[in-house]
Specification:
This protein has about 625 residues and is of the alpha+beta class. It folds into 3 domains: about 130 residues, no CATH class; about 120 residues, no CATH class; about 240 residues, no CATH class. It is about 30% helix and about 35% strand. The radius of gyration is 45 Å and the shape is elongated. Keywords: Membrane, Transmembrane, Transmembrane helix. InterPro entries: Glycopeptide_resist_protein, Vancomycin_resist_VanW, YoaR-like_PG-bd.
Length: about 625
Amino acid sequence: MGKKKLRSWLRKKHDLQKFLLLGSVILLVVLGYFVSYRDKALPNTYFAAQQISGRNREETAKIISANIDDFEKRGLTLEVDGQIENFKLSDLGIEINLERTLEKVFAGKHSDYLGTTFLIWLRAPFLKTFISPEYSINYSELGVVLENSLAKYEKPVKNASIVFVRNEAKIVDSQSGRVADKSALMLTLRQSIESLSPGQIEISFVDESPLTNQDQAVRALDKVKNLQQRRIVLNFGFDRWVIAGGDLFDFLKFYPYGYDGNYLLTLNFGKSPVAAAELEYGKDTRPPLEVNLDRDKIDKYISQIGAVVDKPTVDATLRFENGRVLEFTPAQDGQKLDMALTKRLILDKISIDDISAEREITINLPVKITKAAIANNEINRLGIRELVGRGVSYFAGSIANRIYNIGLGSSLINGVLVKPGDIFSFNKLVGPVSAEQGFRQAYVIAKGRTVLDDGGGICQVSTTVFRAALNAGLPILERTAHAYRVAYYEQRGFKPGFDATVWSPTVDLKFKNDTDQHILIQATVDRAQSKLQVDIYGTADGRKVEISEPVLTNHRPAPEPLYQDDPTLPKGVTKQVDFAAAGLTSVFTRKVYKGDDLIIDDTFKSNFRPWQAVYLVGTGG
């Protein structure tokens, strides 16, 4: 080998040695780097502006936890028009997750791909890496809190619409609005959380223009005025529901053209839906105000009718012993409103745009009837098929013993059967009104005074029976009016004269069953409504009863109030048991027809003496 070649070979060998030495050094450095940061945060790694490079997992967790705790203690502060609103993160539905944040610091070091991991390690010494916290936002909770907090600073936009005032439809003009810029707020809120910066977030506002103004509402007003002239009558049996004027107006809804659902379209931003509720319009491109029927409101209205119409099917039952009914259920046909068909009929008849439609529309409600069964042969044999007369009275303000006596007296006439041609005698059925029979002491009128006596309140029962017999068209054989007007018998609008007193054994209430079938007396006491109801069941024979309004004459003023000592009341307690009533004479007539024949024509006269208000003054211990 020549000298020249030898020198060249030696130089190459020396260069190779230097290269191998350099490579060894680099390899040792890289290996040292990998070994040094094997379980630590990589160089140039920051969390909340604090360097965490070279920290092990435990040290990193402490730093992250301390920063998160500090941020959560400070919370978030919103500045709104110079006012400060402070919130806890939990109140806003914001939750920062420590474990997931910690995993984020070390996750890049253990990628699924070796090449990716190597690149992350290599660039770490030269590029800063900022770790943001892992967090979640409950948008429902956040939305409610922001809505409630910002509402007082906002001014809602109002589109032009139509209102119904004093039987006239009028346009209400539009009004511009001012709303918080929630998009900018959400962006700043996220930035604050991700940097753990607890500074104030200033809320900005944007002006919101109405979609429709007065000009765009004119066409809708013409439609409303056309519809306002309509009258819809819904019929079923004796019941009628009239939809007109304000009621018909309530069926309408108003919205800008294309906004039937209150917004144009919905976009998805991540997992959160965002409604596009506003578009910018030029002066001449605003949508007109549309008017249409609100089907949800119609459904609600029909449901209210159904609550009145619908009745269950009740089969008649009758059980009695020794000539007295122990259990009776009158037959009741079932009724069920077809709500879907009713809605179709209403929608077919009401036209918003048809100006030539009928002005008055009658709709017979579609009701399915289910016939009740007569489940007892005795009902057919006795003729106890239907209600032929009802009497009602009220006893609000009665003392406990009086209410008890009303219930006891009612039970003694309840379930009584009266044969064809027989006479109903109140005293005969009730018997002596005495303590031996279970009656308690309550206030009665005796010898011109209000005193405690056995059976006070029994006349409430006889009065209600009298009213039932009157309405049933049965002959009244004996009836005596009270000497004084009693306030109980004029409650709920009853006029003076429709009462009947009893005083066993001399003063009785009697009527005759002059029908061809048995009649049944049913009495019901409703303590919640302070109401007594007496029903007479039998077989309707075509009677028609006409009762006149009473003619009230011979008016006389009430005397001065009367105060009476009562040892049953504590001292210092005053209780009113009678109310002042002027004296008067009441006369009313009753005519009962069967077909064209007048079968009963009678007159009922009551002479009421003036009666004073009576107060009981406690003298007891």
